[in-house]
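Students often ask what a holo structure prediction actually looks like on paper. The answer is less mysterious than it sounds. You provide the chain, you provide the ligand, and the output is a string of discrete structure tokens encoding the 3D arrangement of the protein together with zinc ion.
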Amino acid sequence: MRQLFLYLYQNERIPMRKIEHLGVAVSNIDEAIKLYEKLLNTSCYKIEEVGSEFVKTAFFKIGESKIELVAATNPDSTIAKYIEKRGQGFHHIAFDVEDIEKEIERLESEGFQMIQRTPKDGADNKKIAFLHPKTSNGMLVELCQERN
Ligand code: ZN
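The corresponding structure tokens follow.
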């Protein structure tokens, strides 16, 4: 009976689909783009400013993966504060999910704390929401779902 329950329970699980991108905090986006173009030997395919977040982002494709460079456009931006405290470098991991609202609900029921309980518009045509790192062992996690 217990095994049957576990089997059914596991079959209801909808896993996160893939790592959508890795976010890298940088102080100067133009210099960082040049550096990453050399590092990855490919061109940046998109530069986008997200006004609501006071950030400018730049994206690179590496196979099925992406790297997102994130720089502050305002000293009050959370990215500016992050760099001030910890310096440039790895910032967040973003997972592609099928249904972001359901995923937020599921994560909250598992005890994770969201920074955004309601998804907002992010860069690269995505709906996004961040988890608070204090409930994910210090890891800043972003959920994203393609906007239609
Ligand atoms: Zn991101």
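The chain has a mean pLDDT of 92.
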